[in-house]
Amino acid sequence: MKKDFIKGLLLRVLHKLCASILGILALSAAATAATATAAPTVNGLFFGDGDQNRYVLYNTSVGGSKLWYTVADNRLYVALVVDRSVNDNLFANKSGKDYTSSAGWNPPHLASRLIDSEFASFTLTVGDTEFEWQQGYGEEINGEWISDHTTGAGSGTPPPDYVSASSFAWNINNYLSNPSPAWDLFADGTDIKDWRSPFDPANPDNAIGLEGYPESGPLTYSPTYQWEWAMVYEWSIDLASFGSDPIFVISGSSHHSPSKNDDENDPFPDPDPDSNPFLSDYGDLPAPYPTLEADNGPLHYIVPNSVSLGTGADPETDGTPHPEALGDDQLSGDDEDGVRLLSVTRGVSMTLEVIISAPGYLSAFFDLDQSGVLSAGNLLTSSGPAQLETGSILDLYIPQAGVYDLTIAAPVVGSQLIPSRFRVTNNAGEGGAAVGGVALTGEVEDHIFQWDDRGSLSAGIDLNSYTSSDGTVMLEISTTDETGSDDIVIYAQMDGKWVEVGRVPGSEIVGFGSHTYTTAAHGLEPGSNYRFKIIDEVGNTFFTSPVLVQSKKPGPKMHTLRLNGNALSLTFDTEPGARYSVQVSESLDPNAQWSTQKVQVVHPAFQGGISPAAYDVVQGAPAAASTTVSIPRNRKQAFFKIIKH
Question: Which of 75, 259, 268, 378 could in theory staple to 22 by disulfide, Cβ–Cβ 3.0 to 4.6 A?
């Protein structure tokens, strides 16, 4: 769909609406799939049943109210949560005295006003069809409190298969089955309009400080009172019945009489007509890969019954770059369950497991040389429900749903992070065969696979970074069995580029055995995280996960603690010639006493492998990066720490 057409349709829709339009949430009716996140429950609760973790924030009103949405099982879910400064589920009885100052109501909010006048207006436009309605906040119908277009101040015509609820209706229905004398809602036959919400019996004019009604911040739920304090309008509709027509979800101003802030309508900002109008799935690879919509990152319109990777896609409002490609998982649910790394054949290929929900077209991109550029993968072989064509993985047709093992050309060596992007669409040519940009259907999954094969390198490398006493950032590199004579060069990723920050001269490399080298780094900021690339003395490359530049040198690292007969065997990092002691305590309490433990050194030079004498202080071996000591097992419980002298 062209952007000019979308913009024109937006303007045509907006022209039909009054000045009280609250905001637009736009998506494609063809734009939905079952998500990996559990669907919200349309019961009026937002905090009380965990729905705050199932919705995606769309917009914020002038008064601070929030409009939330998500899609699951081909249904669109919408929740409007009114800010406490505008309105809430706190109301007084006819005495007119309660909560006036403590909750910001002046005059007090009566239940009768809440029932008779509160509503939220919504408009749903599907192609040329427009649904417009007001959701009343609550009314008793045949003994049940409900919230929809027919109750209270409700009106209009919602779309088919409309399900709705409010927090007020939930509170009163729940109260009816769980009566409590903690507030005056217990008298049989009392008109609901005379009731008031929970209060502190010791201070009937105060509600702030009650469970779920804090002094500041969002109102939440009280398990004690079984009361949702926030004013919530919630509804859902079935999108499958709308085919592939564009859908615009529009919420008019929520109406409050009276309002805490003296404004009966709480408007949302006007929508940006140039923004993406459809409910979409985005990626989350970090820079320099294009992920944000402004950088032409990938986005997929979420379509009912569309092909997906794994269980489905979660909606987001933009890409969420993350160092480990976990951004959209943390924003909403974990929908990146369709691809995983199975194995790597050193220097030749890697095998991936790909789960596809329906016939579709797959494109896969990788940065195998850590250049910051994603390129299409090359399929060598595959196994699964159907035979796939080998070659470039761009709109690769997968004719049958199921689990596939794809072997892809990948000259991976050493320990390496493999940034990857996978896009799947219903049909070829729908936009998935590019690293970025719009795709009309399907899903995008971003991954950073980590493969670790240090044992087959000439160097097994660990890296720490810390700030010395004079403020210089130091890199400490621990290696195993170096065989060459060239320099070891360390690069850090800065602004999407690899920048040399330090090196170990080849003349200092000892050779076989475990050794630690230290070099000053250039351009690194203490307290920041960096990914490092290390090229060893024979040309092999090692990539790290993000490493924190610590404010000081870390203490000795304890590696293993094993039971060996009637003794414990403890191995920890040491520097050649440095002196260490092992301290022991029977508790981790801050006031616990620590004492020096006499230990025996484990070394082949001693008869039986263990020194005959026990020492308070041991010295790091001249040609080893770690030391092992033996400790008598004479305590039921013990905690150990290593002290460098």
Answer: 268
CA 240 to CA 358: how far, in whole Å?
17
Of 199, 232, 242, the residue nearest 103 (C-alpha): 199
Reported as half-sphere exposure (CB side, CA atoms, 13 A), residue 68 has a value of: 26
Contacts of 609 (CB under 8 A, 6+ apart): 602, 603
H/E stretch holding 172: helix 167-177
8's tokens = 């024109």
Please report where in the chains the tokens 């109750």 appear, as a residue: 151
Residue 445 identity (one-letter amino acid): E
Amino acid at 99: Y
Instruction: Read off the pLDDT of residues 567-605 as tens digits, 9 standing for 90 and up.
Output: 778 787 777 667 788 888 777 666 677 788 888 888 776
Please tell me the predicted confidence (pLDDT) of residue 5. Answer: 27
CA 60/CA 81 separation, integer angstroms: 10
Cα pseudo-dihedral 426, 427, 428, 429, rounded to 10: -100
Q: How far apart are CA 100 and CA 211, in angstroms?
A: 19
**Total-model pTM:** 0.57
For residue 115, what is the enclosing H or E element? helix 111-117
Measured CA to CA, the distance from residue 632 to residue 564 in angstroms comes to 10
597: nearest Cα among 555, 550, 630: 630
Which residues fall within 8 angstroms of residue 71, CB to CB, at 6 or more apart?
Answer: 27, 31, 32, 33, 35, 77, 239, 279, 302, 315
Buried b (16+ CB within 10 A) or exposed e, 342-371: eebeeeebbbbebbbbbebbbbbbbbbebe
CA 377 to chain centre: 27
Question: Quick check: 339 and 406 in contact, CB under 8 A?
Answer: no
Joined tokens for residue 607? 């008869």
Token pair recorded at residue 463? 């890296």
Q: What angle do CA 523, 527, 531 make, to 5 degrees?
A: 60
DSSP 8-state secondary structure symbol assigned to residue 170: H
**72 closest CA partner among 40, 100, 45:** 40
pLDDT of residue 577: 66
Closest CA to 489 of 418, 544, 549, 541: 541
- The residue written with tokens 């509600």 in the block is 207
Size of the chain, expressed as the number of residues it contains: 645
* Maximum C-alpha span of the chain: 93
Q: Which two tokens stand for residue 624?
A: 């080893």
Q: In whole angstroms, give the CA distance from residue 558 to residue 300.
A: 47
Whether the CB-CB separation of 57 and 90 falls below 8 Å is answered with no
What is the C-alpha to C-alpha distance for residues 527 and 287, in angstroms, rounded to an integer? 20
Residue 74 is predicted with a pLDDT of 73
Condensed to tens digits (0 to 9), the pLDDT of residues 530-541 reads 878 888 777 777
Q: Are 208 and 214 in contact (CB under 8 A)?
A: yes
Per-residue pLDDT, 65? 92
- The parts of the chain modelled with pLDDT lower than 50 are 1-36, 186-189, 331-333, 454-460
Q: Given the DSSP bridges, would you call strands 514-520 and 497-504 parallel, antiparallel or unpaired?
A: unpaired
Cβ–Cβ under 8 Å, residues 33 and 308: yes
Three-state secondary-structure class, residue 154: coil
SS3 of residue 329 by DSSP: helix
